[in-house]
Amino acid sequence: MEYVGPSVSITDHRRVENASARELLLLSAELPTGAVRLLFLGGVAASALPDGGAAWADTEGDRVILFDGRGRVADVLQGADSSGRLLTGPISVAADARGVMAAEPGGSALLFTGGRPDRWLEPGLPGPLGGSSRAGSAVARTYLEFALAPVRPTDPLVWHVPPDGGAARAIGKVQVPENGLLGQLVNAGWAATGPDGEVYFASAIQPEVRRFGPAGDLEWVSRWRTPEPVEEPRFVADGRSLRPEFAVLQHGIALGIDGLAYVLATPEAGSDTRLLIAVDDAGELARSARVVAGTAIFGDSEGRVYAIPMAYALSRTPSSTRPAFRPFDLPALDRSGKVALEEYRGRVLVLNFWASWCAPCRKEMPLLNAFAAELDPGRAVVLGLNEDLRPADGLAFIEEIGGIAYRNAAGEGRLRDRYHYRGLPYTLILDRELRVAKSFYGFGRTIDPIRAAVLAELEAVDAGG
User: Fold this and answer.
1) Contacts of 17 (CB under 8 A, 6+ apart)
2) Among 97, 181, 326, 419, which is most buried by a count of CB atoms within 10 Å?
3) What percentage of the chain's residues is helix, strand, coil (to nearest 5)?
4) What angle do helix axes 448-462 and 359-374 make, rounded to 10 degrees?
5) 3 state DSSP class of 370
6) 255-292 per-position pLDDT tens digit
7) From residue 398, how far is each of 357, 402, 425 by CA, in Å?
8) What's the longest Cα–Cα distance across the chain?
């Protein structure tokens, strides 16, 4: 395809409309022996480490994987702090003078020092930490924990957190949508910090990247041309409620050691490939290439990019130590006796936290009940932990949904303080040693991910794992 140069206009900042990339990005399927940095893995952007390596949030594995400066796995971080609060579904990673921080969608981050969980940080910002460099880290709103949150014209778009973890600096201005309740979603995206303090923001729903200078001034806005029109977020009727409908276009931004900003995007709905684009210091689209979804993408200082299968990139990951689940000894919800965690040692356990006021639990629990009936109780079982203050409310709820055959214990409103879950429903898969193999927050219309995790654990048992 013939190269068409960008259209550039300048007002108080540079605005770049890119028609096409200057050159096609050539991908290598083999990693070199020299220095490289992980950019993306499994569709998730990596974050730079001070030693030249990178950190990647493994949402599916509830862990963070550290890569060295040659693209090799160096360490695995997971577990809980001294209170027992587990890392669950991290979506981004940042590193600074304090250590490595694994951030969850709500903004909380578990700080690891010396490779071990230290303490939870609550930055108090409407998004997770991510995109770090020697100059600090950045925060942007996320669509992964959606809230009907209006924004004001004076609200910042992103925040920069200094490398010592000091007070965050507000940067940029938000876009105020016509429907104010979509304010968070319209301004959701990914942020990264360059080595000299510049901050990048890649919108999640628009083909747009913004760069702010070290002083926080907007330097340029860069847009690229999509093969299909980009639909604005909107509300649609879903039964008796309204839900937001939107498409995620850009999945993250990572800064290469070649000085380019790399963005991973899905330009066509339903495509099994991704578009990798590289933007230069002027906001111009330097290179682009199609990559297979889920590929591990590395880059070197010369601008060469390497795309290898995710499984190969992780093939040398050391075995991580699964955190033990804190034990309990609770009354049965129906007061038929006691329910102790230790009773389930030797079996795979699906542990489901729920409450009568949890609307998604009403949809999820009948599906869990059907799944429980499929399991061999000598090998795997489902157990409910009810969070209602009054057990009678939980029992009435079970009757309303047609009954539940598996056992339930009464937490009497004390479970959240003990296990620090973000919300309900909250489900964990415990292995035969009562260690956390997998965790799930929320309910996404099906329990297939829970089913798959249980079956995978049983397969590992059968294989002698």
Assistant:
1) 6, 7, 8, 223, 225
2) 419
3) 15, 40, 50
4) 30
5) helix
6) 999 999 999 999 887 788 899 999 999 999 999 999 98
7) 12, 6, 15
8) 75
